[in-house]
Amino acid sequence: MTAAEFRKKSFDKVNCANKPMEMGAYHECLFVNCDFKECSFQNFTFIECKFIGCDLNNITIGQAKFEDVEFKDCQMENLKFHNAHVKTFKSTFNHCFMNGASFREMKLEGQSFLNCILQGADFTKVDLVDAEFLNCDLRKAIFKETNLKNTDFRTSYNYTIDLEENKVNGAKFSTNGLAGLLQKFDIEII
Q1: pTM of the model
Q2: Nearest to residue 73, comparing CAs of 41, 122, 115?
Q3: Burial (CB count <10 Å: 0-12, 13-18, 19+), residue 4
């Protein structure tokens, strides 16, 4: 059985609970206000696609390919991005709700997270060189053995990053974020 191929198609208000998406390769497709909650994208391919206002909570990602994919205004709780085809993963996230997302051990150089809520997201052993977290809520996000070289956190907030167990050379932080960098020392910053 050959996988379907879709090019430059628009999908509006698709609900996979009513009709599952056809497995295949989607090139330059637009998904608007779709409900993919708890569906499977296992072995799907998305290249230069846009997801706008979609519910992607708890989807199964197993070996899905995301190349130059944009997610905007999407619900994306508990996604295990580390299960995606990591060699081809390249996406941007703008105004997305991504609590509990996992990027464990991924290579995300230059990755952009813009205005996202990433509470409890897992960035353990992730390569985030030259990444940017612009105006993101990182409460309880996990940064452990993470390469944050030149990563921009200046406008983000609620992060706690251990400077001794992560590579932070050239990373950018605001003075408002000092408490999250020094938390382990149990000191008071006034």
Answers
A1: 0.90
A2: 115
A3: exposed
